[in-house]
Design brief:
The chain has 520 residues and is α/β, with parallel strands linked by helices. Helices cover 41% and strands 19% of the residues. The chain binds 3-methyl-2-oxobutanoic acid and zinc ion.
Length: 520
């Protein structure tokens, strides 16, 4: 590998999935891991194996399935975490243990360790990990707020104990590009043994500088960027994979680095992560936003027609967006549907295609033209409904009028038992949600209710996102339908199903805090 190669470490399934409300199901995690592997991600951080039985199973299975990528699991700085992590990643052809501890003054206070005690802990845990696995990554959490001398000291200890990747996290998104480059450059120049390891950068986006900080770190000598699809992640998120990869590709004149990413797969994985996480991509998001390649103003359109380069620095094809796209209609057959889905980066097994085809025909009957975005919404809705869910919507009819209350007749299936109710509310959605609560009483609080028209026109499908919170657990559900109220009911029920999975995890004591080291 030449030194201008930058490794891409994707943590969508770990740091990304940690963001409140972004829970993914087991099969969704496997699907995303497969897409990451296929697009050429070098290292996939598949989860935090000690966090829950579900995380452990997901990491183990991803480790078994992955073809090319190194599969990495996260562990805190204690033997129990590290052992559990190795148990999960050992199935991979190329396993990696990633272990971390917070080294800044604020983070040192959490486990209440002195500087010397923490240094010993780092030596012991990295050595332990290295005895299990040849490939060990170590991170001083909150590195950018750690005292310089202490940071050099602990990085040196980790290298001597056998870590081959040293990750420097900007955990709270505090650093700025000049500092980011300088920190890595100085560490490489100062710490003995630094030339023999790969330095990584892991930036959070609290001040909107994650992409700039990651690229600056590469200028400073880092050769691994940690990032997530769509910038998913805690608080304001992590560095967005698509942004750093396309920045290095588009501006290779001033950033002569390359990655192994097949950029034509970016759009498909971005859409899939958005739909499984329930985190809608903002329209003006760099690279993958709906408007990123749209040229609406007259001047821009005129300029584009004369020469694309007037307003386009990247080609849409480079990220997997096809140029013009003809809509399907009610006469389109299965083969046309399969071809179109393939074009959108969706490869379905025959039985899945059959299910989607039934939905497609139903939609095409109600809507003259079925656009790409309609199909994407349809596939996501199919995936949301098909999980092994405890709750599902069977029938819904709402009666609306100019005068409240509106009423909803709802039939739902809960654990295989069908129940029919009528409920009232202030508007059709309120009546519907009240009906769901009547069938399945719960204390979850509605945090977000959002409706997006998938395409234009009054026959457009609506994509509805619902976020629920119960005892600190947050789950987001999504659904799409030409009937906004039906989409709302299904999204609400989808969020409830996801919340039930979380509820189960917390009652089995599997929710753990990142900063607890007591069980060492
Ligand atoms: O942000 C952070 O510091 C992390 C570490 C666990 C690497 O995610
Ligand atoms: Zn992080």
């Amino acid at each position: 590998m030449t030194t201008d190669h930058v490794l891409i470490f994707d943590t969508t399934l770990r740091d990304g999935e940690q963001s409140p409300g972004a829970t993914m199901t087991h099969s969704e995690k496997l699907e995303i891991a497969e897409m990451l592997d296929e697009m050429g991600v070098d290292i996939i951080e598949a989860g935090f194996p000690i966090a829950s039985e579900g995380d452990f199973k997901a990491v183990s299975e991803i480790a078994k399935n992955s073809q090319n990528a190194v599969i990495c699991g996260l562990s805190r700085a204690n033997f129990k975490d590290i052992d559990r992590c190795f148990e999960a990643v050992k199935h991979s052809k190329r396993p990696r243990i990633h272990t971390f501890i917070g080294t800044s003054p604020l983070h040192r206070a959490i486990p209440n360790l002195t500087m010397d005690e923490m240094a010993d802990r780092i030596h012991d845990t990295v050595s332990h990990a290295r005895n299990l696995c040849d490939n060990v990554q170590w991170s001083p959490m909150d590195a950018t707020r750690t005292e310089w001398d202490y940071l050099c000291r602990v990085v040196e200890i980790a290298i001597k104990a056998g870590a081959s990747t040293i990750n420097i996290p900007d955990t709270v998104g505090y650093t700025a590009p000049v500092e980011s480059a300088d920190l890595i450059r100085r560490l490489i120049a100062t710490v003995p043994g630094a030339d023999d390891v790969v330095f990584a950068t892991h930036c959070h986006n609290d001040l909107g500088m994650a992409t700039a900080n990651s690229l600056a770190a590469v200028e400073g000598g880092a050769r691994q960027i940690e990032c997530t699809i769509n910038g998913l992640g805690e608080r304001a998120g992590n560095t967005a994979l698509e942004e750093v990869v396309m920045a290095m590709k588009t501006r290779s004149d001033i950033m002569p680095f390359h990655t192994g990413i097949d950029t034509t797969k970016i759009m498909a994985i971005s859409r899939r992560v958005s739909s499984v996480s329930g985190f809608v991509v903002q329209p003006n998001k760099a690279i993958v936003g709906k408007n990123a390649f749209a040229h609406e103003s007259g001047i821009h359109q005129d300029g584009m027609l004369k020469n694309r380069e007037n307003f386009e620095i990247m080609r849409p094809e480079d990220i997997g967006l096809s140029g013009t796209s003809l809509p399907l209609g009610k006469h389109s057959g299965r083969a046309a549907l399969r071809a179109k889905l393939k074009e959108l980066g969706i490869d379905l097994a025959d039985n899945q295609l059959n299910d989607v085809f039934v939905r497609f025909k139903d939609l095409a009957d109600r809507k003259k033209e079925v656009f790409d975005d309609d199909l994407l919404a349809l596939v996501s809705a199919e995936a949301s409904d098909e999980q092994s869910d405890r709750l599902s919507v069977k029938f819904l009819r709402v009666i609306c009028g100019t005068e409240a209350p509106q009423s909803a007749d709802l039939t739902m299936v809960v654990d295989g038992v069908e129940t029919q109710v009528t409920a009232h509310g202030d508007g059709p959605v309120d009546a519907t949600f009240n009906a769901v609560k009547q069938v399945f009483p719960h204390a979850a609080r509605l945090q977000l209710y959002q409706v997006h028209a998938v395409t234009e026109g009054t026959d457009a499908q609506a994509t509805v996102s619902v976020r629920l919170e119960e005892d600190g657990n947050i789950a987001t559900g999504q659904s799409a339908d030409t009937d906004t109220v039906v989409a709302s009911a299904k999204a609400y029920v989808n969020a409830l199903n996801r919340l039930l999975v979380k509820r189960e995890r917390s009652t089995t004591g599997e929710n753990l805090k990142m900063v607890s080291y007591k069980d060492a």
